[in-house]
Amino acid sequence: MYAEERQQEILRRARAIGRVDVVTLGEEFSVTTETIRRDLTVLERAGVLRRVHGGAIPVERLGFEPALAARDEVMTAEKERIAKAAVAEIPDDGAIIIDAGSTTGRLVQILPPDRELTVIVNSPPLATALAARANLNVIMLGGRVRGRTLATVDDWALRPLARLNVDVAFMAANGCSVAKGLTTPDPAEAAIKRAMIKAAKRSVLLADHTKFADTYLACFASLSEIDMVVTDTGLDPATAAEVAAAGPEVVRA
Prior knowledge:
three-stranded antiparallel beta sheet; single chain; DNA-binding; 10 helices; 38% helix
């Protein structure tokens, strides 16, 4: 097992049970405790775990929301596969919304150059990346910029969305479950996401498999309100079947 694979499994276990132990991980992965401590240091620097005596706790359990830069450093291969699969849902022309997020940011990077599109975003970095494209009409929603996610929120972002009609909204979420739907830690971001889905004919969620282990404070949609979920093959078939039974088509890239 490569170090990145081991670190991703450590993160998955921490999120699933709430804590991981250095000695136990060393025994289960047949590596030294020093190797596990280095893994935990990498994950802590990425902002997804917090080191505690003898092990680590996922930041979600401590009430922290990982910053966008930290989230962009984990599950990179899975996020790239998800973005590539989501390209098939981009219309040849028309209007789309791309929500602020690390996986949706990968979609921005590989947006096909031959499409004539109006693209609505609520993220200054995404707007900057798209603005140089001559074939795109880029609209950035105004409002307060949240430092942790670099997403614009509040009334100046909500009001324009109420008057827009787009073909597809490509959405991000911090958590996803059949019981609790799509969730995010911040109610202001949840309100924007809810309005994005309402403004779109179709909504496509881009979420790696780790998002299906967590639930956060604010729900912005049920799975029945989403048309498609694009995830990675790390999502087990049983969970994928449960998600599909709730309404959306599930694509495992």
